[in-house]
Design goal:
single chain, about 350 residues, mainly alpha, ABC transporter involved in vitamin B12 uptake, BtuC, two-stranded antiparallel sheet, 4 strands
Length: about 350
């Protein structure tokens, strides 16, 4: 009887997928992603694209919060930086969309590192307030710097094209966003196999002990803010190019709370948790809306209450996970895998 997973070479020990079951699940997932756009309708593709952008943003936030232990409530503001930078460069300066996206990522990383400076002295609630201030400062600049951002008016972004193909159609954008999701996933997984990633987790577990062991807290905390903001800026730039319209309403504090909920519900400090949380929190309002429309004939008042029900469900889900499963959906998925892996001796 197999009683564990044993490695006989260094290559096997360092592999991203160490068991046959993990490799099979990965192949099934890749085949599903390749086949999905050919049988999905436009509505499903739109949801898939939204999930792809949310996964990138959630992974970025998870690097900072889940892996490094630095709380942030400025996700919406940093996404706004990525979106407006990419939109302005493309719409007003004629920069190619792919180049503007890359520039937006680095711009967001730089500003994120600046707002990460207080993390050396602040922790917990105080750091959360500092990042919340960043959120409000960024939105204030966006809505009042009319010469650059247009203020409260919408910024129209030209349609991105690649080899003569319009990339912001649902079908074409699907391939772009999920290719980037795969790249971001591989980069993040491998990041935490390096000394940089190990320094991040050491800071999360006990920053004083990490400092005693020689970890430069200031350097690595700023680096965590920069890497996280880079990915968040990517999510913002993709939103700008996909929607072709950038408005400040897309990047309010509600967005920051939404992304924080994604990684809490999905699982802190796990890339898989970022996937699960993004899928869950993107589909939850969709499911509630469809349920409300289905019940409209029986209970007409339900349709008018849907926005309030969504807000109540949003808060209730977070509370329930924090109380009953603090490790999120990733822990539930792990329990399911362990059950079948150890069956019939799952006890």
């Amino acid at each position: 009887m197999i009683s564990g997973i044993f490695h006989t070479t260094y290559e096997q020990d360092m592999a991203l997928r160490t068991s046959h079951a993990q490799k099979v699940r990965l192949v099934i997932l890749v085949l599903f992603l390749l086949a999905f756009p050919f049988f999905a309708n436009r509505y499903a593709l739109t949801l898939a694209n939204q999930i792809g952008i949310a996964v990138i943003g959630a992974i970025g936030l998870n690097i900072l919060v889940g892996y490094t232990g630095q709380i942030s409530l400025g996700q919406g503001g940093f996404m706004a930086i990525g979106a407006y930078t990419a939109g302005i460069l493309t719409a007003r300066m004629g920069v190619p969309w792919w180049a503007s996206t890359l520039i937006a990522c680095f711009a967001t990383a730089g500003i994120g590192a600046i707002f990460g400076i207080p993390s050396l002295r602040l922790k917990g609630l105080y750091l959360a307030i500092a990042t919340l201030a960043a959120q409000e400062i960024i939105l204030w600049v966006v809505t009042h710097w009319k010469v650059v951002t247009g203020g409260v008016d919408a910024l129209v972004v030209p349609n991105p094209e690649l080899f003569g193909l319009r990339m912001n159609t649902d079908f074409n954008f699907y391939w772009l966003v999920w290719a980037l999701v795969i790249v971001v996933t591989l980069a993040t997984v491998n990041l935490f196999r390096t000394h940089y990633g190990r320094a991040f987790t050491a800071i999360r577990d006990q920053d004083i002990a990490a400092s005693v062991m020689g970890v430069d807290l200031f350097k690595y905390k700023l680096l965590a803010f920069a890497i996280s903001s880079f990915l968040v800026g990517l999510a913002g730039a993709l939103t700008a190019h996909y929607r072709s319209i950038v408005t400040w309403e897309r990047f309010t504090i509600d967005v920051s709370v939404l992304y924080l909920a994604m990684i809490i519900i999905g699982g802190l400090g796990r890339v898989t948790g970022s996937y699960l949380g993004a899928i869950f929190m993107t589909l939850l309002p969709v499911v509630l809306s469809n349920l409300g429309r289905a019940l409209k004939g029986v209970f007409p008042i339900v349709e008018a209450l849907i926005p309030f029900i969504q807000q109540a469900a949003f808060g209730l889900v977070i509370i329930l996970f924090l109380v009953f499963e603090p490790e999120g959906l990733n822990k539930i998925w792990k329990n399911i895998k362990d059950y079948f892996r150890l069956w019939p001796f799952s006890y």
